[in-house]
Amino acid sequence: MQSSPRLRLLRKGAILLLFSISCASIILFILITFSPLPALQKQEEQAIFQMTKRHTDIAKLILVNDRLTGSSKILASRPDFAKAIDAIKKIMPGGVDIVAVNLIKNSVSVTVESKSLVLIDTFFTNLISVVNAKKDFSQLTLTNFFFHDQKDSYAVTVTVTPL
Amino acid sequence: MSTNILLRNNSFRFLYYRYKDSPYYSVSITALAFAVCIVLLFQVVIPQVQNWFSISDEARATQLKISALQKNINFMNNIDKAVLNNQFDVATRALPPQKDFDTVLIALSDAGLKAGVSFDDFNFQVGNIATEAAKPNRTAQIELPYIKLIVTLSGSMSSINEFMREINSKLPLSETMIVEGDARSTAVTLQFYQKPFPKIAYKDDQPIPSLSDANIALVRKLSTWQPESGGNSVSSASAVPLF
Prior knowledge:
With 163 residues, chain A is an alpha+beta fold.
């Protein structure tokens, strides 16, 4: 008995589908079998083994970075009192001497002494101009001003805020 | 019993011969073929495709990991071990891993000698040596443990100033906290910092952090700050922790 053309077409379709699925399955099986993954994993293991030999040096490098980060933080934040005193000394006229200091972070307090009020005034004027120019210090406070009977000299205590 | 089977076989054969030329036979065979195709598609092909994609992804990830590892290996091969050891030595002297009084005293005496001041009095405020080392006193700005030291100096204001300059350029790193004094004597409060070795969490395929130019310049600067009377080895009681 001759089958209908529709049925024949359906049968052909089924055969074609079965064939394509079989082919796809075989191709996928071949692709999976011959994938480069095992070779890559072996390569990775070798590279990890090579890295383990360098762990000590890597640790040292990380520690150097860690220590240097800490060091740079300390260097950036610590006050430089010597620089502040130098800046004050630079503007001190001859005949004016530092006799006492009281330095804490953000506050430099110095007591200067001189037998001449004019020299004290010059020191003041210089200090005020430095503070106004915001060169080394940002704020100036006159803390104390007195006359020393025994030494016959004037003493002035000023407090400045270093920049 | 065997008769029954024979009968059944016979009945199947009978059915086959009866329907093989009928449209039902063709339809059922075609339907069976489609059914097998669907089963194969869902049970074999689709899982295989998924497997293939996961294998491809893994291969790609492994390839990336290998290239990162290779880059790290090349980077480490190009590092001069002697230079690295020297940098480690200097950085560890700058920030010792634990309270190190020897180096502190060496730095102090070196700075005092250069500045021309004499020491009248020392006062170490150490804290608990063993257990508190990891949980130290901390300053507001720098979260690092330190040894606090009050030293009374005799000398002119210029030499005290010079002492402050000298101690600022000595290792281990210190910070001058308070300076209080007059022409007779000056009390200087110093903090010598330390930093315990951190636990290193590093993965082999992570990029190795190289020293920045600023850090290279800093380590060069710090290497010139080593006290002249100091020893050459890092006095470290604890071993360098690795991974």
